[in-house]
Write a structure and sequence with these properties.
Elements: E1 3-5, H1 7-14, H2 21-32, E2 36-37, H3 40-47, H4 53-63, H5 73-88, H6 95-106, E3 110-112, H7 117-122, E4 128-129
Parallel strand pairs: 1-2, 1-3, 3-4
Helix pairs in contact: 1-2, 5-6
């Protein structure tokens, strides 16, 4: 099964001076297995806020082998539906989070994240989270 990797996971692996070794290992395994998936908004988040041009170029190069899942109108409609469903239950989230949930659900993917908000979303949304071994 493909795994949609959230920004926080990329950040742990590519930006932190002291990366989380468990996250880094799991990400490497997903890449080696050819199961990694990324969407444009995550690519943008990873590349945004980079201090220097050389860091930007290095990050861009690290991400270049991975093709984006092509987003369609139905992904955004489902994201809005998921946002509304969670909001009615008192669970708030970002548009990007609900877009990840939507893409993962519609494309039958797991979400790899260290963001605990997704545990709350999972209570009300039919999403699968990637569990590190």
């Amino acid at each position: 099964m493909k795994v949609l990797v959230d920004t926080c996971v990329w950040s742990h692996a590519l930006r932190h001076k002291k990366p989380d070794l468990e996250i880094e290992k799991a990400l490497k395994e997903i890449i080696m297995d050819g199961r990694l998936a990324i969407v444009g908004p995550i690519r943008q988040e990873i590349l945004s806020g980079v201090a220097t041009e050389s860091q930007f170029e290095s990050l861009k190069e690290h991400l270049s082998p991975f093709e984006d899942v092509l987003l369609q109108a139905y992904h955004f409609v489902k994201a809005a539906e998921f946002s509304n469903r969670c909001m009615r239950k008192g669970v708030q989230g970002s548009n990007t989070d609900f877009l990840l949930c939507s893409v993962a659900y519609l494309e039958k993917m797991e979400i790899f994240t260290s963001d605990t908000d997704f545990v709350n979303y999972r209570k009300y949304l039919p999403i699968e989270l990637f569990e590190r071994q």
